[in-house]
Design a protein that fits this description.
The structure holds two protein chains of two kinds. By secondary structure, chain A is α+β, with helices and mostly antiparallel strands. Chain A is built from four helices and six strands; from the N terminus they run E-H-H-E-E-E-E-H-E-H. Chain A has a four-stranded antiparallel sheet, covered by helices on one side. In chain A, strands 3-4 form a two-stranded antiparallel sheet. In chain A, a hairpin with a 2-residue loop joins strand 3 (about 55-60) and strand 4. Chain B has helices at about 1-40, 45-65, 70-100, 105-120, 125-135, 140-150, 160-165, 170-185, 195-220, 230-245, 250-260, 290-305, 310-325, 330-345, 350-365, 365-375, 385-395, 400-415, 415-430. The termini of chain B are far apart. The interface of A and B includes residues 36, 38, 122 and 138 of A.
C-alpha cells in the first residue's frame, strides 16, 4: 500500500529555522535506509506557511488567503510517499525516523485510496471507452 | 467489578494484537538483512534462514512480555548471533569428540567467533546485495531463483509464492529446499562478485526480477490478466537493488522499465477484465508518480553511460509513450530509432516485428511492410501479432483484399477470445465498400 507520511509543522519550522547539520545527517541516513528497503517513493520539505497561499471555495466564489496560517500544529512542513505492506510497517518506519524538529513534533501517516477501494465503481470515462472499443468490433 | 475486569481483558487483548502486528512489521523490515548477515557468517543460506527464524521466535515470546526494545534490529541481530555462536561451539565440540584429539582447539574457536562477530558488523547493504546475488545464482534453475528471491529477499511465505504462481505450497517448499541444498553443495563465495563475474551475475539478478514483474504484468497462468502484487514485489526488489548498487546503469534501466510499465496497471484492464491496448488507454489513469520515478531512473541509467543497455532501451521506449499526453502525440520516429538500436543489442524476431510496427507508424505502411518482409518468419510461425501487423499495414496501404486474408489468419492463430473477435472485425471491415480507413 502507498502512504503519505506528513511531518507536521512546529513554531520553529513555521519561523523558518533551518535544521542543524546533525539532524540533516541523521535524516539523510534515515532516507538512505528507506531507499535500501525499497520503501521511499518520493518526498520533500515545504517552506513555512508564510510563503503559502490558500484558495477558499464557496459556491462560485474563490477567495485567495495569504499565509502564514494560524493552526501551526495542523500545518505540514514536509512529506514522504512510501510503499509499505501495511500501516503497521509504516508506523514501524516512522518510529525509526529521527525527531524532525527541535522540540516535540508529530508525524502523521495517511494511506492513499487504491484501485480496490473503488470496488466495482466504473467511471463514466471507462464505460465510454469500453463502448467505443466495442463499437469497433462488429458482432459484440 | 466484572465490567472493569472485562474491560481490562479487552484492553490487554488489544494491546497483545497490536504488539503482534508491530512485531510482524519489524520482522518484515529486518528479515532480509538479518538472513543476509547470518548467511555470510555461517556460509549457508538455509541455516541462516533457520537462525533468523529462531531469533524471531525468541523475540515474539520476549517482546510480548517486556515490550518492543528501542532498537529491535540490533536486538534481533544480537540474539541470532548468540545462537549462531552456540551452534558453532557445539559443532566444534562434536568435531573434537569425533576426532578424539587432545589438542586444545580453543584458540581456533575464538578465531572463528571473532570472524563471526566481524562478519555481522560488516556493511549491511553489502550483505544484502551478496544475498541477492546468491539467491539468483546461475547454479539454480530459473524457477528456483525466482522462488528463493521471493522467499529470502521479498519475505513472501511459500504459501504466498504458491498462490502467486498458481502452484501448490508443497511444490514451492520443495523447490526452495532443493535450491538451498544446491547452494550449500556448490560451496559458493558469499562475497559480492566483482569485475566480469559481477557483470555476468548481475544479468541473472535483473532477469529474475523482470521475470517476477512479467509474471505479474502479463499473468501467463490463471484468469487474471495482471497480478499487481507480483509487479509490486518486483518493483520493490528493483528499488532495493537500486539502493544497494547505485552505480549500475542497467539496474536503473530495469527499474525505469518496471516503474513506467506499472504506471499503466490501472489503465490496461477494462471493466470486463479485458486488455486495453496502449494506444487506447485512458492516460488520465496512468500513475504520474511512477512515471516520474521511471523517467528519473532512466535519466540515471543514461547518466551512468548505460543508454544502450537492453533494459534502458526498453525503458526509453516505454518512456516515449509515458511522455505523450495522447496517443496522437507519440514520438514514433524516436520509437523507430530506439528499435533500430535495440535489435542490435537484443536481437529477436519479436523486436523486429515491433520495430516494423514502429516504422509503419513513423514512416507509413510501406516502410513497415518492407521490414516485415525481412523478418525470419520461422520463429514466428504461429504468432498471431505477425499476420495482424501485416494485415494492418496492407489495410493502411489500401490493399484491402490482401489485408483481409492476413487478419483472418491472425484470428485463426489467436488463443484469446477478445483478440480473435477484434481481428475478425478488422477482416470484416476490409470488405466494406468505401469504408473510411481504419485508425487505431
Amino acid at each position: 500500500m502507498r502512504v503519505m507520511v506528513l511531518v507536521k509543522a512546529t513554531e520553529d519550522s513555521e519561523a523558518g529555522v533551518m535544521p542543524t547539520a546533525e539532524l540533516l545527517e541523521a535524516m539523510g541516513r534515515f532516507n538512505e535506509e528507506l531507499v535500501k528497503a525499497g520503501v521511499l517513493l518520493t518526498g520533500d520539505g515545504l517552506k513555512p506557511s508564510s510563503q503559502g497561499k490558500r484558495v477558499a471555495f464557496d459556491g462560485p466564489n474563490r477567495t485567495v488567503i495569504d499565509g502564514p496560517f494560524a493552526e501551526t500544529r495542523e500545518l505540514v512542513a514536509g512529506f514522504w510517499v512510501w510503499e509499505v505492506k501495511d500501516m503497521a510497517e509504516a508506523v514501524e518506519w516512522v518510529k525509526r525516523c529521527p525527531n524532525p524538529m527541535f522540540g516535540p513534533s508529530e508525524i502523521e501517516i495517511r494511506p492513499f485510496y487504491e484501485m480496490a477501494d473503488f470496488g466495482d465503481v466504473v467511471t463514466p470515462e471507462i464505460a465510454e471507452r469500453d463502448k467505443q472499443l466495442r463499437a469497433k468490433i462488429p458482432g459484440l | 467489578m466484572p465490567d472493569q475486569e472485562s474491560d481490562d481483558l479487552l484492553r490487554k487483548t488489544m494491546m497483545a494484537v497490536e504488539t503482534h502486528q508491530t512485531i510482524e512489521a519489524i520482522f518484515r523490515i529486518e528479515r532480509a538483512r538479518l538472513i543476509a548477515g547470518l548467511a555470510r557468517m555461517v556460509r549457508d543460506v538455509g541455516l541462516a534462514e533457520e537462525l533468523a527464524q529462531d531469533a524471531f521466535v525468541v523475540a515474539l515470546s520476549e517482546w510480548t512480555k517486556t515490550g518492543v526494545p528501542t532498537n529491535p534490529g540490533a536486538w534481533l541481530t544480537a540474539a541470532a548471533k548468540r545462537r549462531a555462536i552456540d551452534l558453532l561451539r557445539r559443532d566444534r565440540m562434536l568435531a573434537r569428540k569425533h576426532a578424539e584429539i587432545g589438542r586444545d582447539l580453543s584458540e581456533e574457536d575464538e578465531a572463528g567467533i571473532a570472524a563471526i562477530e566481524a562478519a555481522m558488523d560488516d556493511d549491511v547493504g553489502d550483505e544484502l546485495l551478496s544475498l541477492i546475488f546468491i539467491a539468483c545464482h546461475p547454479v539454480l534453475s530459473r524457477e528456483a531463483r525466482v522462488a528463493l528471491t521471493l522467499r529470502l529477499i521479498g519475505g513472501l511465505t511459500t504459501d504466498e509464492i504458491a498462490r502467486a504462481y498458481l502452484s501448490s505450497e508443497a511444490a514451492v517448499a520443495q523447490r526452495i529446499v532443493r535450491a538451498k541444498k544446491t547452494l550449500a553443495k556448490a560451496g559458493l563465495s558469499f562475497e559480492v562478485p566483482r569485475g566480469e563475474e559481477r557483470r555476468k551475475r548481475l544479468v541473472s539478478v535483473l532477469e529474475v526480477i523482470y521475470l517476477i514483474f512479467n509474471e505479474g504484468y502479463s499473468a501467463t497462468a490463471g484468469e487474471d490478466l495482471v497480478r499487481p502484487a507480483l509487479c509490486a514485489e518486483a518493483q520493490r526488489l528493483g528499488r532495493i537493488l537500486a539502493g544497494l548498487a547505485p552505480e549500475e546503469p542497467e539496474v536503473f534501466g530495469l527499474l525505469a522499465l518496471m516503474e513506467i510499465q506499472a504506471s499503466r496497471l490501472a489503465a490496461r484492464v477494462g471493466p470486463q477484465g479485458d486488455a486495453i491496448p496502449l494506444t487506447q488507454q485512458n492516460r488520465a489513469l496512468w500513475d504520474r508518480l511512477l512515471i516520474r520515478r521511471g523517467l528519473a531512473a532512466l535519466e540515471r541509467a543514461e547518466a551512468l553511460g548505460g543508454a544502450a543497455g537492453p533494459y534502458a532501451l526498453q525503458a526509453a521506449l516505454a518512456a516515449c509513450h509515458a511522455r505523450a499526453r495522447s496517443a496522437e502525440e507519440t514520438d514514433w520516429p524516436r520509437i523507430a530509432a530506439l528499435y533500430d538500436v535495440l535489435r542490435s543489442v537484443m536481437p529477436s524476431p519479436v523486436v523486429d516485428l515491433n520495430r516494423a510496427v514502429a516504422h509503419s507508424m513513423a514512416f507509413g505502411p510501406e516502410a513497415g511492410l518492407a521490414l516485415l518482409d525481412a523478418i525470419d518468419e520461422t520463429a514466428l510461425r504461429d504468432y498471431a501479432p505477425l499476420p495482424a501487423a501485416r494485415g494492418d499495414f496492407l489495410f493502411r496501404a489500401g490493399r484491402r483484399a490482401e489485408a483481409k486474408v492476413h487478419f483472418e489468419r491472425a484470428a485463426g492463430l489467436s488463443r484469446n477470445g477478445r483478440e480473435r473477435a477484434f481481428l475478425l472485425g478488422r477482416a470484416g471491415a476490409c470488405a466494406t465498400e468505401g469504408a473510411t480507413p481504419y485508425r487505431e
